[in-house]
Structure formats: C-alpha cells, structure tokens
C-alpha cells in the first residue's frame, strides 16, 4: 500500500503497468480522472474508491488548490518492489 500525494493543480499520468490491479481510495481532497481523449472525467471526493485497469483513464488530476491524497492498494503477490537508490558519496569513502 502506498499514498499518492497531489498538490493543488497537479497531474499524474496513469501508466497501465504501474496501476495493474491497483485500487485507489481518495483519503483527502478531490481527484479528477482525465479520460483517454483528454477530456475531464468525474471528480472523486473523500472516501471514493476506484479501479483504473481497463477504464481508459490516462491521468489523475487535483482540480483544487489544497493537497489531495489517494491510498493505492495492490495485491501482495503483484506488488513490485523498486530498488533503493543510494545517494552519491561525493567522493567520500568509508
């Protein structure tokens, strides 16, 4: 489970591979679905849940000025782990 934070006016593209079998729940603010043709879709408020798989939604957008948050739930078996990026050592050796 992870949280997507959208500042006011922010837009996040929906990449199908990242959202496969994911379920989102708006926990704070409002989120608008941007449809495949670029047209604005429905605005979802707090506690609204949604699937994106197979819907044609191409982006999530915060139509307001306040920060919106979406909890993203994915099945454990399908969770993708990303490698941890190590900060550069700037020439310092230990």
Describe the model.
The chain is mainly beta. It has one domain (2-78): Jelly Rolls (Sandwich), CATH 2.60.120.10. The chain contains 1 helix and 8 strands, in the order ββαββββββ. It has one helix spanning 16-19, and strands at residues 2-6, 11-13, 23-28, 31-34, 40-44, 49-51, 59-61, 68-73. A hairpin with a 5-residue loop joins strand 4 (31-34) and strand 5. The radius of gyration is 16 Å and the shape is globular.
Question: What are the defining features of this structure?
Answer:
94 residues; mainly beta; Jelly Rolls; four-stranded antiparallel β-sheet; disordered C terminus
Compact overview of the structure:
The protein contains 1 helix and 8 strands; from the N terminus they run ββαββββββ.
């Amino acid at each position: 489970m992870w949280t997507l934070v959208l500042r006011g006016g922010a837009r996040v593209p929906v990449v199908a591979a990242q959202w496969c079998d994911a379920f989102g729940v708006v926990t704070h603010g409002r989120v608008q679905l941007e449809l495949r043709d670029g047209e604005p879709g429905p605005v979802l408020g707090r506690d609204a849940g949604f699937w994106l798989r197979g819907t044609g939604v191409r982006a999530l957008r915060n139509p307001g000025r306040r920060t919106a948050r979406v909890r993203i739930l994915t099945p454990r078996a399908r969770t993708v782990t990303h490698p941890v990026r190590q900060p550069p050592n700037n020439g310092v050796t230990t």
